[in-house]
Amino acid sequence: MMKKIVLTACVAAFFSMTAFAEDAPGLQADKAPPPPHQMEDGYRGMEDARTMTVTQAKELHDGASVSLRGNLIKKEGDNIYTLRDKTGEMQLYIPAAVFDGKSVSPDELVGISGSLDKKQQPVHVKVTHFQKQ
Asked: Which among 4, 28, 17, 7 has a CA at the least distance from the CA of 101?
């Protein structure tokens, strides 16, 4: 009787673990992002006057607060991602804690905010807030 209980518990634990084995948080590169010429800010109905373009963000001073909207198109390394909007691309530093368990694919619009780091080359944004649009 005890063996059956232990066996049942092991089988139940095995199958419940697969339910929790969802995709890891972060960029899921299984879908292609839209080409830059087809990207329109707010093309999914989002409007935010504080959001700027990559080109505008690159012109700001070191440490400036930045809010961008676009697509994460690739992962460059540990916590380093590339965001693309209709004006260009910029590297982002996004700690795993900022993703907060969310996963995103390149065809999904995201919004980020953080601070511009011009001391590093290439220039990048240290992301403090991440949101799927």
From this structure: 28
Q: Look up residue 9 and give its DSSP letter.
A: H
Q: Are 39 and 70 in contact (CB under 8 A)?
A: yes
Q: What's this model's pTM, rounded to 2 decimal places?
A: 0.64
Q: Kindly list the distances between the CA atom of residue 33 and the CA atoms of 1, 25, 38, 97, 131, in Å, as whole numbers in the listed order.
A: 55, 18, 10, 24, 17
Biggest alpha carbon–alpha carbon distance for the chain: 72
Indicate the SS3 state at residue 2: helix
pLDDT per residue over 7-54, tens digit each?
A: 666 666 665 554 454 556 777 777 777 776 666 554 443 444 467 999
Structure token digits, residue 5: 């209980």
